């Protein structure tokens, strides 16, 4: 990470509290990040509006509004944010939908440290 830059701001949106906390801990162990968690789409919209993230990790299977629709809503006001889909459903159609228009990448849950590290490095390099 560039010593002159501020910590990456990351928004993790996952209705599974344990999964969200584990991802947050992994990210914080890998790099200086300021990670926030939202467990539902409306809370994610509120967090993003008050403190825009550099990176959003969105679970696809959210209640009320799925991760695809949430990404579409967030993209309108966060054009420079990197969006990554998270899913425990490892079907090819989920990966294809996720990496189509709304997401830059797709990560399978449980997320692996090396995948998260590569993602953080990529986002940092693009800032």
Please explain how this structure is put together.
This protein is of the alpha/beta class and 127 residues long. It has a single domain (8-126), classed as Rossmann fold (3-Layer(aba) Sandwich), CATH 3.40.50.2300. 44% of the residues lie in helices and 21% in strands. The chain contains 5 helices and 5 strands. It has a 5-stranded parallel sheet with strand order 2-1-3-4-5, with helices on both faces.
CATH architecture: 3-Layer(aba) Sandwich
Instruction: Figure out the total of helices.
Output: 5
Count of the domains? 1
What percent of residues adopt helix (DSSP H or I)? 40-55%
Physical arrangement of strands within the biggest beta sheet: 2-1-3-4-5
Supply the key terms.
127 residues, 5 strands, alpha/beta, 5-stranded parallel sheet, 5 helices, single chain, globular, Rossmann fold
